[in-house]
Design brief:
Elements (H helix, E strand, L loop, with lengths): L10 E2 L6 E2 L9 H10 L6 E3 L5 E6 L16 H10 L2
Antiparallel strand pairs: 1-2, 3-4
The protein binds zinc ion.
Amino acid sequence: MTGITVSRFILQCDGCDLQLGAEGTPFINAVEGRAIGYNAGWRMPCRIGVTGSPVRGSYDDVCPACLPAWTPGLTEQAKRKAARDAP
Ligand SMILES: [Zn+2]
């Protein structure tokens, strides 16, 4: 018996959950997916880390419709810190 694992990379908007790449030819990898998304008007703004500055390597995926009103999200680490610091 042979097990086959099928994985596909899709972009999912962190604002409205819109998906890119869910239909048609799947992206080969996340880098290709983001490149195609970028050409389609998507942007991948950095999330804000614990220091309050954008963190390279942690991104949100944002579709063109959500982009005008987008405010940067927090990294998981920053979210935990914010929850800890909350009164
Ligand atoms: Zn969106």
